[in-house]
């Protein structure tokens, strides 16, 4: 019975990792930009929610919406003024610049919020659980997983059913030709980053509500996001969800065997997938 | 004058792709460009569409200097281009490829663009393939898609780069009929083509290029029969 419980917890944890990974996957898919500051942006999102709750006295949902708006603007401006200039044939400049951003965000948050460990309080919602047969699932993990599915559904709808989504896909296929169709790449990239940052804010919300956080935990969360993206295969958001679930399962099962094995088990599964299927389990991208 | 090229020159080191090229195209005219491989034909298109910057000279569209405008602006200003080597968005369907061009090339909303997209796909005979991913098309269909997308951007000037090569006689006649149809709607066309009989069925005027230079210009038959063109094509000394 304990194993059924472990598997359910693992799947729920996978929902969180999928949320971590979706923004990363989105940005890499559209503009081949590897955002090394992705984890730190999630922490920034969590702090933005915290400011709403503690400084402005808003409810957690209102704070999250505000944080989403804030991150949208941050993403758009950052891409427009800085990151668009780093894109090109060479993959190194965006890596270096986002690595620099990672350091800036960590130190900025340390300066502003100190190194104290924080947690977002969801008004007792953390304590609620749902009884399914003999398994009890926390309402928060369930909501996280549900949010990941909804986010991916919405993004897929945007990609395949809207004009802007088609422009995202066209630019992802061939940015040079996209311009010859009249698409303004810089604007499309800025919009994509803004959108990814909204997803990052949602990830930050659950990051802060499910566990404690401090200004320096970004990079370790980035690793989980990377692993989920790679396991799932580049270019497919459902693949990213599957990658997150596999990683979550591996960690939950590893922890069940020996509490010290939680992250290690995740890394081992990640490496195993890389060896057996270097392009991930459900790749969509070619070349 | 819809398009004017004034003394355009461009070279890559010792390789000259355009040497003092001056050319004017009137509204509604169909101009053909011929010349051996490497003569600089596609480079002229690159200079017109803005993917190549000239070393000197200028490009005027409708009297306005667009020499320093990026390709995207020129698309919006009314220059549509099909590439010799097709560059479709492979993961988008044929329909989506065309809709993207129609929406972003003209600023139209998708609902408004939809009917026109269907019409253009019908004209270029790609309607039966509309829901296939462009990556699944054959080379010939990809070339048609190039023309389709160029048309969808709502151009005043259509640049066609070698779209008849490799077609069977029947397909070639179909293509000529399609281009004549586009022309009858008042479109100005510049067409680069090796398949001369197809070209001559459409164009009013012909320009021959060699080593980036215009070596003959005028009525199609005269240019084809001119000594300089005969020398290149027939190997006459």
- The tally of structural domains of chain A comes to 1
Overall number of strands of chain B: 10
Measured distance between first and last alpha carbons of chain B: 37 Å
Provide the spatial order of strands within the biggest beta sheet of chain B: 6-7-8-3-9-10
Briefly summarize what is shown:
Chain A is mostly helical.
Could you please describe the fold and organization of this structure?
The complex is a heterodimer of chains A (287) and B (237). By secondary structure, chain A is mostly helical. Chain A has one domain: ABC transporter involved in vitamin B12 uptake, BtuC, CATH 1.10.3470. Chain A is built from 11 helices and 2 strands; from the N terminus they run ααααββααααααα. Chain A has a two-stranded antiparallel sheet with strand order 1-2. In chain A, helix 2 crosses helix 8 and helix 9 (218-232) packs parallel to helix 11. The model of chain A has no long low-confidence stretch (mean pLDDT 93). In chain B, a hairpin with a 2-residue loop joins strand 1 and strand 2 (15-25). By secondary structure, chain B is an alpha/beta fold. In chain B, the strands form 2 sheets. Chain B has a 6-stranded mixed sheet, with helices on both faces. Chain B is globular. The A-B interface holds A 163, 166-167, 169-170, 172-174, 176-184, 284, 286 and B 49, 51, 70-72, 75-76, 81, 87, 89-92, 96-97, 99-101, 103-107, 109-110, 149, 153.
How is the secondary structure organized here?
The complex is a heterodimer of chains A (287) and B (237).
Chain A lengths: L1 H30 L6 H18 L4 H22 L10 H22 L15 E4 L2 E4 H23 L1 H11 L1 H6 L4 H26 L7 H15 L4 H21 L4 H15 L11
Antiparallel strand pairs in A: 1-2
Helix pairs in contact in A: 1-5, 1-8, 1-9, 1-10, 2-3, 2-4, 2-8, 2-9, 3-8, 5-6, 5-8, 6-8, 9-10, 9-11, 10-11
Chain B lengths: L2 E10 L2 E11 L4 E5 L6 H9 L6 E6 L2 E2 L5 H7 L1 E4 L11 H13 L3 H14 L15 H14 L4 E5 L7 H16 L3 E5 L3 H5 L4 E6 L2 E6 L1 H6 L1 H8 L3
Parallel strand pairs in B: 3-8, 3-9, 6-7, 7-8
Antiparallel strand pairs in B: 1-2, 1-4, 4-5, 9-10
Helix pairs in contact in B: 3-4, 3-5
